[in-house]
Amino acid sequence: MTKPDSLFASIDEVFILRLAFIFSAQFALYEGFQDYNRGSGHPEVIVLTLVIYGVSLLVFVMSLLPSSVVLRFRDLPLIPLLLAMVTSVYVVAEISYAGAYRTDVLAFSHYAAMLFVNQGANPYTQDMTKALDLFKVQPSDLTPLTSGTYLMTFQYPALHFLVFVPFVLLGLRDMRWVLVLFEVGVVLTLYLKGPKKLRPMLLLPLFAGSDLMINFTAASVSDALWVLPLLFAAFCLERPLALGLFYGLACATKQTPWFIAPFLLIYLIKTDEDKRLRERLWPAVKFAATTVAVFLAINLSFMLPSPTTWFGNVLTPMTEDLVIHSQGLSSLTEAGLLSVGKVFYTVIFASVFLVLIVNYYVYFDKLRFAFWIFPGIALWFSYRELTNYIIYWTPLMLVSIILWYKAEQAKTRTVQAT
Amino acid sequence: MNRVRKLTAPLSAVFLIFVAGFAFANLQVKTEYPPPILDPEFNLWGSNPTLGGKTPMIWELEYEKSVGDQILLQETVAADKQALEIQIFQDGSDDNLTYVRLGQTIDGIRVRALFDEDVGIWVLLQASCACKGPISEGGSIFEIETNDGTHTLDFFFVETAAEASISPSHRTIFLQTPMGEWAYHSIDLVGQYRNAQWNPPDRISLSIIFSVSGSAAGWHTAYVHGFSVTKKTTLTSTQDRASTLPFLSTTSSPRTRMIDQRATPSQEACLPVTRSPCTSNARLSQRFNL
C-alpha cells in the first residue's frame, strides 16, 4: 500500500533520500571501523562498534526498500550519523587521548569555570598553568610565544567559560560532552530548518570528513560553542533584535564571530533598498545596540575589576607575541619559504577584509548570501590561520543556502501567483 | 552607481596586488623565527607519576638510577634567580652512574633560528656536600649536549679549565664555572660546527645532563636559570676562543653566595660519606668516556 506522503513525493526526492541513507550508513561504517581500531581491547568499544555496524547494515538495506518505506523513515539518516559522532568522540577522547584535553583552550575554560564556581575568582586575573596539569594537556598542544614561553592566561570572552559553569556544578568531568551537545544542537537546528524534501542533503557537508563533527571536538576544539548561537542568529536575519541577541551571545563566546559584524550590518542596511535610508538604518542600529548590550551584560562584571587585563587577554592575537602558526598563506613563512614577518600578513589580512566589505556592499545583490565564508577567506591571509577558523563556518553557509532556497521559492510562488 | 559597480571588482584586484607588492617590498623585516628553545626558563611544570612530584612539562625527562639513589627536580630561587634545581643523591652502593637528562628536539626553522642567534645559559654549580670540593672533582658532570644524529657537542661546566677534546664526530668543550655563583655561558654552536667543518643540521636534540658516578656518594646539586636566545651580535664568538682560552667563555655575575630559600634535601639529608668519592678529572674522563 502506498502512503499518502509518497503520492506527492517526486522521484528526485526519493532518490535523494536513498543517497542520504547510503551516505549515512557508509559514514557510520567508516567511523565504526576507526573506533574498532582505536579502541580494540575495550569491551565497551566492541559493543558500540557492533551497534554502529548493525545500524549501518539496517540503513543500507532500507535505502533499497520501496519508496513508501524510504519516505516513512526519511529521518533515519540522522541516527547512524549522530551515533557515529557520539561514539567516535567517546573513543577518541577517552581512549585515544586517555581523557586528556588536546587544547589549552578547553583546559583553561574548564579551569576558569572551576575557579569561578569554587572561589568566585575572575579568571582574567588568574594564572592558568595549573589547568595543564589538571587536564593532562600535552606540550605540543600549547600556544607558544616568540619568547619560547607559552600563553597561560584565559583569552576568550566570558561566555566561553560561563557556559561550563552549570556542568561544573553538576560534576561533569569532561567538557567535551558540552561541545557534543552544542554540535547535536547545530545538526538538529539545520535539519529542522531545512526544506523538508532536501533535509538529508544538509547533513552531507557536515559529515564530509570526520574533522568538523568528530575529530576537532574530540580534540577539545571549542568552536561549536559559538556556532550554535550564530546559527540561531542566521535564521533571524529579518528580526534585528533576535539577531542582536544571538549574535551577542556568539560574540560573548569567542572572537571568531566578531569578523562577521560588518557584513551583518551591510545586510541589514541593504536588504530593503526600496526603503528610505533612515528606515534601513534603524534595524542596523537595533541590531548593534542589542549585540553590545548582550555582550556587555555577560562580560562587564569581569571587565570592570581590571579592564586592561580583560582587554589584554581577549585581544591576545594583537597584544601577545604569538608565533606564526598556520594552515593558511603564512605557512610559507612557518616552513621557511618566505621571509616576511607578522606585519606583512596583518596588512594583507586587513586589505582582504576591507576589499570583501567594500565588494559585499557594492555587489550586495549578488553576494547577499555569500558573506558567511568571508571571515574564513580573510583569516586565511593572517599570520595565524587554523583550519577551525574556516571549517566552522560550514553550518552558517548551510543556513545561507536554506535562506537562498526559501527566497527563491518565495519568488517563484510570487511569479506563479501573478 | 553603474560605474562604481563596473570599477569596484577590478580596482579591488589592483588594490590587493599593490598592497601585496608594497608589503612584500617594504615589510621584509628580519625573519621572525619561532622560538628555537621552548620553555627556556622552565616555567611549565607538570605532575610526573613515574618520578613522583613535578617535572618540567616541555622538556623530555630521561633518568637512570639505582634503587637507593634519588633524583629530585624542582623550581626554586637560588641566589636571587628563579631556577631549575636538579638534585641527585648517589647512595654509593654500586658503581652505576646516576643521571638526569632534560632534552628537547629542535628541527625545521627552529634549528635555523638556533644557529642564527646567540644562545646562552645561566648555570650555578653547588659544591657537592659529599666531597666538600669542586663538583667536577666529586664525580659528577653537569653539561649541555647537542646531538644531530651524527655529531655531538658537549659543553661541560667545570671549575677547572681544560683543553677541548676533539674527535671527528664529537667535541667536548670545558666551560670554566665558578662554584656557588651564577655564571653565564654563551653556547656557540655555529662556531663549533664551523671549526669542526660539520654541515649545519636539520634536526638536533638539546639536552641538559647532570650525572653522578657511582663512587660519588651523597647529594649533588646543579641549577639552571635558563637559556637566552638573542639576536646575533657581531662580536667574535667567545667559544672560538674558549677552546684555547677557556677563561674567556665565562662571565660571572657579581659575586654572591648562593642563597637557597628553602630547606633542600641536600641540607637536610647530607649524609656522611664513608668512602672517598672524589675522583680526579682524569679518572672522571675515563669513567665517563670523555
Structural summary, described in words:
The complex is a heterodimer of chains A (418) and B (290). Chain A is mainly alpha-helical and 418 residues long. Helix content of chain A is 67%, strand content 1%. Chain A is built from 24 helices and 2 strands. The longest helix of chain A is centred in the first third of the chain and has 28 residues, at 11-38. Chain B is of the alpha+beta class and 290 residues long. The longest helix of chain B has 25 residues, at 2-26. Helix content of chain B is 20%, strand content 36%. In chain B, β10 (165-167) and β11 form a beta hairpin. Chain B folds into 2 domains: 1-30; 45-287, Jelly Rolls. A 7-stranded mixed sheet of chain B has the order 3-6-13-8-9-11-10. Chain B has a 6-stranded antiparallel sheet with strand order 4-5-14-7-12-15. Chain B has a two-stranded antiparallel ribbon with strand order 1-2. The interface between A and B is large, with 33 and 39 residues.
List keywords for this structure.
heterodimer; A: 418 residues; mainly alpha; two-stranded parallel ribbon; 24 helices; 1% strand; globular; B: 290 residues; alpha+beta; Jelly Rolls; 2 domains; 7-stranded mixed beta sheet; 6-stranded antiparallel beta sheet; 6 helices; 15 strands; 36% strand; elongated; disordered C terminus
What is the topological layout?
The complex is a heterodimer of chains A (418) and B (290).
Chain A: H1 4-8, H2 11-38, H3 43-63, H4 67-72, H5 78-96, H6 104-119, H7 129-134, H8 159-162, H9 165-169, H10 176-193, H11 199-206, H12 211-218, H13 224-234, H14 240-251, H15 261-270, H16 277-303, H17 307-314, H18 316-319, E1 325-326, H19 331-334, H20 342-362, H21 364-367, H22 374-379, E2 384-385, H23 388-391, H24 394-417
Parallel strand pairs in A: 1-2
Helix pairs in contact in A: 2-3, 2-5, 2-11, 3-5, 5-12, 10-11, 10-13, 10-24, 13-14, 13-24, 14-16, 15-16
Chain B: H1 2-26, E1 45-47, E2 54-56, E3 60-64, E4 70-78, E5 81-90, E6 98-107, H2 109-116, E7 117-125, E8 140-147, E9 152-158, E10 165-167, E11 170-176, E12 183-186, H3 189-196, E13 203-212, E14 218-231, H4 238-242, E15 250-252, H5 265-268, H6 281-287
Parallel strand pairs in B: 9-11
Antiparallel strand pairs in B: 1-2, 3-6, 4-5, 5-14, 6-13, 7-12, 7-14, 8-9, 8-13, 10-11, 12-15
